[in-house]
Design goal:
2 domains; 2 helices; three-stranded mixed sheet
């Protein structure tokens, strides 16, 4: 699936269904903005840009991302998490930077 864009007045939300793990952080966090029964399912103007960005930053997979249109800072990029394949298919996670950021677009498999 390609990344879909949902543009609001002050924030633009993008979604990649292939990355989504259905943790429902978005739906539980802002049901007026994220409603899987509605089409389009994202309506960014149903909350403030601050509220929308805060919920998107809780998305564990990185399926949701945002771009601020109101001049406020865009989504911060955190440290990269590196996953290394170990013996018998186990994985070890190495921290890079002060904290581990598990959002998928910031992971590197080595």
């Amino acid at each position: 699936m390609t990344r879909r864009i949902y543009r609001g007045t002050d924030i633009e939300v993008s979604f990649d269904g292939d990355l989504c793990i259905h943790a429902t952080e978005c739906v539980r966090g802002l049901p007026a903005v994220f409603d899987r029964e509605r089409r389009p399912w994202v309506f960014a103007d149903n909350a403030t840009a601050e509220e929308v960005s805060a919920v998107i930053e809780r998305c564990p997979s990185g399926a949701l991302q945002y771009r601020r249109l109101d001049g406020a800072p865009n989504e911060p990029t955190g440290p990269v998490t590196t996953i290394t394949a170990g013996a018998w298919g186990t994985a070890a996670r190495a921290r890079v930077g002060p904290s581990v950021n598990c959002r998928a677009q910031r992971m590197a498999v080595v």
